[in-house]
Design goal:
The protein is of the alpha/beta class. The protein folds into two domains: 37 residues; 224 residues, Purple Acid Phosphatase, chain A, domain 2 (4-Layer Sandwich). The chain has eight helices and 13 strands. It has a six-stranded mixed beta sheet with strand order 5-6-9-10-12-11, with no helix packed on it. It has a five-stranded mixed beta sheet with strand order 4-3-2-1-13, with no helix packed on it. A two-stranded parallel sheet has the order 7-8. Helix 4 links the parallel strand 1 and strand 2. Helix 3 packs parallel to helix 8 and helix 7 packs parallel to helix 8. The longest helix has 29 residues.
């Protein structure tokens, strides 16, 4: 209380002190609110909230999963660094268009690879051509959303839901796409993809047919991607994600530094 307040009556003094207490209380409340905003949601709470999302568009775009990457990045941080080197032949989405002569020449000039990954969506003419020039022992495959079970038909190594180790690098696969229609085909609902991958151990490379969840695909449910992939990449701080499905080859980094590689037709990647 300053010099001007010395002549205040007892009632005025009381009101003055109440006002001070009220101001302090408000300051504390603001401080607590600020602290709450700064707190990062726990991993367990985030996952519980995630699996309790009520999906309202069974075969459509699920906006509840959009724009989650900044939150996931705050919870889990930066992706790990891949310490070993590996060369991967990736073949995807040929849809009966694989040109044998061109493919043969490509393999003859690019035969120094450690593993061949088939990411799905092949026609009945494609696999026999691939097997002419690529050793079956090096092939690990997953199904695309347009595939029948070519893996069983040709006796290939099925990577779906499995982790293999090549040159000290752990590789996990997940088949199919988002289930955008009621018919049976290799696919997951968003929640199924979350639960499927959440049960898997940490891998260094995630291999999928589909992409992670695409925030910009509200008018294209077939290409909205799987949120289970996005969640797995951030939760396990995965260095690399390789996928097909969208027929558009590119490479980019996710917010956490995970390197996303979109493959189309056939390419070799030296990681």
């Amino acid at each position: 209380m300053n010099e001007e307040n010395k002549s205040l009556s007892p009632i005025e003094v009381y009101l003055y002190l109440c006002d001070l207490q009220d101001k302090e209380s408000k300051k504390m409340n603001l401080f607590n609110i600020f602290k709450k905003k700064e707190n990062i949601i726990s991993k367990e709470t985030y996952y519980n909230n995630l699996i309790n999302i009520k999906e309202i568009n069974q075969y459509g775009y699920e906006s509840s999963y959009a724009n989650q990457e900044p939150i996931l990045y705050k919870i889990y941080g930066n992706a790990r660094i891949l310490n070993n080197n590996i060369s991967i032949l990736v073949i995807s989405d040929t849809h009966n268009t694989l040109n044998e002569k061109e493919f043969k020449n490509f393999i003859l000039t690019n035969n120094n690879y450690d593993i061949c990954l088939l990411l799905g969506d092949f026609g009945y003419l494609d696999i026999p051509i691939i097997l002419k020039y690529v050793s079956k022992d090096k092939i690990y495959a997953i199904l695309g959303n347009h595939d029948t079970n070519y893996i069983n038909e040709y006796g290939l190594n099925d990577l779906n839901g499995k982790i293999i180790t090549i040159k000290g690098i752990k590789i996990l696969g997940i088949m199919g796409s988002f289930r955008y229609k009621p018919s049976k085909f290799p696919s997951f609902s968003q929640k199924e993809s979350i639960e499927f991958l959440n049960s898997k151990e940490e891998a260094d490379i995630l291999v999928s047919h589909d992409t992670g969840f695409n925030n910009l695909s509200s008018n294209d449910p077939a290409h909205q991607g799987l949120f289970g992939i996005t969640y797995y990449l951030y939760k396990n701080r995965v260095p690399y994600h390789i996928h097909g499905h969208i027929h558009n080859p590119y490479q980019k980094n996710l917010l956490n530094g995970t390197k996303e590689i979109s493959a189309y037709q056939y390419q070799i990647f030296h990681l």
